[in-house]
Amino acid sequence: MVAAQRILITGTGQLGSALELEARQQGHEVRAMSHAQLDVCDALAVLELARAWQPELILHTAAITRVGWCESHSAQTTEVNSNGTVNVLQAAEAVDAALVFFSTDYVFSGRRPGLRLESEATAPINVYGASKAIIEPLVLEYGRGHVVRISGVFGPRRDGQTERCFFRAIYEGMQAGRSLAVVQDQWTAVSYAPHLAQMLFSLQGSEEGLPRLVHLSSAGANSWYGWARELAEVAGFNQNLIQAVSSEDYGDPTPRPRHSVLGSEIERVSRLVANFPARQGLEEYCRYLRSGAAQ
């Protein structure tokens, strides 16, 4: 474990919530800023906050992640995901803070089966992926910048808002007894947000430190249809409510990678990820949903 740090987190969604909780549990001094508290598109506000609070580490999670919405709102997506990240990067440089930028498996085209590794060239096929891919090199040019690619994030929020994620939508649909069509030809890894937070701080506190570019997710791979059926099994719902459909039949106009399972060619990262199975994350998340805390 590293010495206590002053950590600024942009965003209080699923990932920001998990990072804040883990950071506080490890004794760090944390400020987690919601969009209402800090608009990353306001360069002056971001810079003034950094200069006033002098964080040693900035965890940049604030982003628009609604992939379909991004496709039809490219200007707004670029403003937040790309230009907003530049503002955070410049603030980090101004106070010499380490910066972790959370990117996505959607920076890849996903046309080829197999794992997507850190060394693979990016080739996004939608607006959301492009808004992240264009910023990665800028972050890596900064001597204290890190890019962490993640995928399929799910987990509780701590800011009082209801989280939006695939597994909540599937859980609530099955709970209501609805039949749900889920694509069976898009393969991915999913990421339980508390797993990501634990892995990130484990790597940061290790002797080798956090890699400059790294892929993190919970361990396991499946199609979205397969993940939905696994959730049904964990939650005790009728798996027959989940109906497999092709991407074409599903009718989503937004292009999405068919094969975007993140893997790591960094051996110590692969060993770490193996300790955080997605099934465990699903079990914990289902307990949270059942508890009523999610309402």
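The above is record 1. Record 2 follows with the same two-line structure.
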Amino acid sequence: MKIAVLSDIHANGDALDAVLGDLARRRAGRVYHLGDLTGYNAEPERCVRWAMENAAGGVYGNHDAVACGRKQGKDFHEAARRAALWSRERLSPESRVYLAGLPASLRVEGDALLVHGSPCDPDRYVYSIDQAMEEMESPGSAVANGPVFFGHTHVAGGFVRRGDGVVEQLPPGKFRLGPGERALLNPGSVGQPRDRDPDASYLLYDPALREVEWVRVPYDIESARRKVLAAGLPPFFADRLRDGT
């Protein structure tokens, strides 16, 4: 049975609905999330409620930490902090409790690990092979036990450490993790992609075959943009949805 991994939904209900429709057609099994259900876009309560009621498990992201009051977002740029605090004001008490209770990492499906940023630091961005190597070689890093699903960068793809120790970058597509190989796999962002493809992104994983497939789903971007602007959130966030940046 394939599972789905979603990340960085960022209060984009239109994108989430499109992904869920695609998952229903594919008859995927359990769905997990990698955090940042909130921030940037206009429907935080809707997206957190979906996770509360439907996700098999998940972790918190840095925007979620601000939205539920775990952190104040002092390291955010001003527009991002404004949007996270805007989300906080529009979440129900139950949703804030849910976000506050999410862990920084979570073991699922036997040997897979869910994190938001990286196994060693939930706020770390992993963009490069050198950064991936540091994560894979860090003493005590949980990445040693199996595939790691991470988000935070909003860029679909990942990194694999081959049996000979060489670390390679993986483009999104289809991939099978071989014997003795380890991987950091990023599903990309549902709600605010930044890889110049505005379509929502997620991945499917078959634990039995250790196979991964990245999926892109078109959605009503103009509807999401209108909601951002109507909410009085920074117009820059609406533009990012259109441009995929």
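Helices lie at 13-26, 44-54, 62-67, 78-90, 93-101, 129-137, 221-230, 235-243.
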